[in-house]
Amino acid sequence: MILIYTDELNPRIEYISRLIFTTILQNEVSFTVKSSEFLKSELPKLNYSYEKFGNEFYIKPHRFLHCKALIQPNIQPVWYKGEKYFFESSKDSDLPFDPLAASFYLVTRYEEYLEFEKGKYSRFQAKESILEKYGLLKKPVVNIWARLLREKLKERFPEIQFPEPKFHFLPTIDVDNAWAFSNKGFWRTLGAFVRSAVKGNFSEVNHRLKVWKGSEKDPYDTFQYLDEVFKGNEDKVLFFFLLGDYKRYDKNNSWRNKHFQKLIRETAGKYTVGIHPSYSSSKKKGKKKLISELDRLKKITGSEVKKSRQHFLRLRFPRTYRRLINTGILEDYTMGYASQTGFRAGICTPYFFYDLKKEEVTSLNIIPFQIMDVTLRHYLNLKPEEAIAEIEALMQEVKKVGGTFSAIWHNETVNDEGVWKGYREVFEKMNKLGFELSDA
Predict the structure, then answer these.
(1) Has residue 212 been placed in a domain?
(2) What sign does the CA torsion over 100, 104, 106, 112 have?
(3) Rg of the chain on CA atoms, in Å
(4) Looking at the 3D structure of the chain, how many domains does it have?
(5) Which letter does DSSP use for residue 422 in this model?
(6) Do residues 355 and 318 make contact, with C-beta atoms less than 8 angstroms apart?
(7) Other beta carbons less than 10 A from residue 300's beta carbon
(8) Does the pTM exceed 0.90?
(9) Residues 21, 2: contact at Cβ < 8 Å?
(10) What pLDDT sits at residue 188?
(11) Residues in the chain where the model's pLDDT stays below 70
């Protein structure tokens, strides 16, 4: 156990201390606000206060963790052994920056509670983040800082033991559209056919006709292929299904379609299934839509729904997560960017959401992801070999700190057709490497 002394123990300090020392470093912590108790203790200990007593392991806190107002703190870069950090500490501290304050700023997504320039789909953009500005977005800095604290504590207290964290690989599939041409309903199918013909897109017209006749497979119907790739690892894979009503950004198959329902039930029999809340449900007045979509998935599978990922990765703090909590969701898999790969919250370990406006830890477990197929192909415009290199580099970053590497793919992006030509190989190589590196 590690004993932490602080002038005033508040929810922020307790939360981030437990995240770093217990969740990431897998060691218990206890707290004291009594200097006499701290000084006489024989435990490995950290003085996290504004007064240094002697030669103890000491970090002077940045005032950020004691501030209750939601205002942008003054953040200046701090250099240490050739690496850039932020939230300065003091010259007499054992580290020149405050890893607890810096980690808290990142994992709570503090910067997303403030005013920011909204990108397309009203999302917080990677370019607005401090990690992108500091060139740290491709590093799981919170995990790295935790290991730095581990090393410093072991230097001071050689008897302290830290288990070596394990690497986990978590591939996930979002089903926005189960089929490109099939099972869309008569009028919707007819309308799409006419539009293709009017636009002179006769190759698509021909493709549609062949799919309807059964002479060709629907280009989005890759579910048998996915079963082959995931064979033997079904318990490590998640599928998220979009069940919202047809709208501009929710052009999925109808949840009432019996073929779609059959697909969902068959998938749920092999893998863990979660909800993919629609674009419409993420709007300010979308709570009823979310409840309806959850009920649909529960009705189809006959099971409670506990896992979720937002369609279009739309997150608004704290509204989105509060809404998920209120509807019984226990795990969310949205934490990542559409426009960039990397670590949106600076962390690759699942952690509990901290509600900054309520100043409390919640029951919602956040599982960050690092890469998405659309990011690699459309936003970054990477060739297949470049995409493989990007994935391997990020996976090795996670492997070094023993975190969870999670990736988002879609059923339609592994069809090896059109703009996705060559990306099936990317998908296969990612899964092969991920499962090979997995410790459990």
Answers:
(1) no
(2) negative
(3) 24
(4) 2
(5) T
(6) yes
(7) 19
(8) yes
(9) yes
(10) 57
(11) 183, 185-215, 440
Q: Which amino acid is at 231?
A: K
H/E stretch holding 168 reads strand 168-175
Angstrom CA distances, 389 to 136, 201, 233, stand at: 18, 35, 23
- Token code pair at residue 203: 């190759």
> What is the residue type of 323?
R
Q: Which tokens sit at 403?
A: 């975190």
Q: Which of 362, 275, 374 is nearest to 317 (CA)?
A: 362
Q: Report the alpha-carbon angle 316-318-322, nearest 5.
A: 110
- Token digits for 206? 């021909």
Tally Cβ neighbours within 10 Å of residue 77. Answer: 12
CA 3 to chain centre: 31
* Structural domain range at position 246: 168-180+218-437
The domain that holds 398 is classified in CATH as 3.20.20.370
Which helix (H) or strand (E) is 44 found in, with range?
none
* Amino acid sitting at position 236: K
Q: Which residue has the tokens 């369609």?
A: 311
Give me the helix-helix angle, 319-326 and 287-301, nearest 10°.
40
The whole-number pLDDT of residue 273 equals 98
